[in-house]
């Protein structure tokens, strides 16, 4: 990726953006049957555009066309190498249009442009390309049997997949879903978050240009009752992949149970700890990672570090270093390439975050419009700031007297998505990592692994499958055993 542009250059691009504004069904943008939805820039509440949304009628048409496309094999029966080539062409088109997509993402979601340019777009391309390259490298199996039998264990695409996306990483979450689903040969219907639909619609346009057959990727903007629930209840949708709140995830389980028992994969909330043990050997490094983990993307991140569990002996020095690091975290206009924290997504979410901004903050505690400064509180374990998923730039600090207590408190939550452990002792760090009940545990760093590693959670953070890595392909396929009897026919006397 090239260097960042100036703020003025990004503003100029934003002024000239003309995004698609209607559902994308069967290879065409069509006027939806739902109400018009106004897209607002979270940073200043100015109108970007109006979107024609979908409703149940549009859902039914999209599912019909997705089923038709799957059954006739226009994508699923293509040679794996042909599917790979198409997805790589899509990656090239995304790269060619990266500036437009980055600016569109920023003004639609409030994300800092530097994150869109340097993280989200490159990782989106990397994700789709990785899964594309895996298509012709995933082998079927045989089982060890007696000489007179042969089994062939094959993976077949599950069929019509509905992907329901969150608003915090619109492009990246789109890639996490469609990359493995399209690689497997499925037809995919995407419901983007109602707050952030623009980039998904633009990617659909690029997918058509790349040669993806009509009906294979469809985008239905709209709200949960109008689009999400009809997809969740549809008898001809074979699977739902959902990323979002635990509360909404429960609804998709209900929809599945009350319809066709479609497969449901959930990646839900988190209340992720950073455990800093008493033998940490690089407090400066730990502080860097904790600041990034807590405040990157305004804390609007299911894997954000929202709890800092730190040993009493090093708490003072660690907090000092964290405060020093925060001097470089500028809050402001998302199109300014110097901005590290942009705007919260909408008014409703601002109200949710605001209720946690009480007196007594060690750092920050201020909100101006849609902008919240990085905020740190020292709290007790039962404080609501330490129990609830805030999804904002608020870090709770809990002091402990032992490493055992730290691990116990880390597990004292209904969630289990990610965790981080900081220690100068490899044995202690690995022991803590094994004892923490979370889907991803990093040691002496913050992160979510790479595109090669599975991502998902324990407990109420989700279940049913994993995003990323080769494991992501499993959720979009069904296993079939083909059994062959090799015995010679035996004549039967009358």
SSE topology sketch:
Layout: H1 7-15, E1 24-25, E2 28-29, E3 36-40, E4 47-52, H2 56-71, H3 80-96, H4 98-109, H5 113-134, E5 149-157, E6 160-164, H6 170-184, E7 187-191, H7 198-210, E8 217-219, H8 224-233, E9 239-243, H9 246-257, E10 263-267, E11 272-276, H10 283-295, E12 305-311, H11 312-325, H12 347-354, E13 367-368, E14 371-372, E15 375-378, H13 384-387, E16 394-400, H14 403-411, E17 415-416, E18 418-422, H15 426-435, E19 440-443, E20 458-459, E21 462-463, H16 471-474, E22 477-485
Parallel strand pairs: 6-7, 6-9, 7-8, 9-10, 11-12, 11-18, 12-16, 15-16, 18-19
Antiparallel strand pairs: 1-2, 3-4, 5-22, 10-21, 13-14, 17-20
Helix pairs in contact: 1-4, 2-8, 3-5, 3-7, 4-5, 5-6, 10-11
Tell me about this structure.
38% of the residues lie in helices and 20% in strands. The chain folds into 2 domains: 9-268 and 461-480, Aldehyde Dehydrogenase, Chain A, domain 1; 272-443, Aldehyde Dehydrogenase, Chain A, domain 2 (3-Layer(aba) Sandwich). The model has no long low-confidence stretch (mean pLDDT 96). The protein has helices at 7-15, 56-71, 80-96, 98-109, 113-134, 170-184, 198-210, 224-233, 246-257, 283-295, 312-325, 347-354, 384-387, 403-411, 426-435, 471-474, and strands spanning 24-25, 28-29, 36-40, 47-52, 149-157, 160-164, 187-191, 217-219, 239-243, 263-267, 272-276, 305-311, 367-368, 371-372, 375-378, 394-400, 415-416, 418-422, 440-443, 458-459, 462-463, 477-485. The chain has 494 residues and is of the alpha/beta class. The radius of gyration is 24 Å and the shape is globular. Strand 18 (418-422), helix 15 (426-435) and strand 19 (440-443) form a beta-alpha-beta unit. It has a 6-stranded mixed β-sheet with strand order 8-7-6-9-10-21, with helices on both faces. The longest helix is centred in the first third of the chain and has 22 residues, at 113-134.
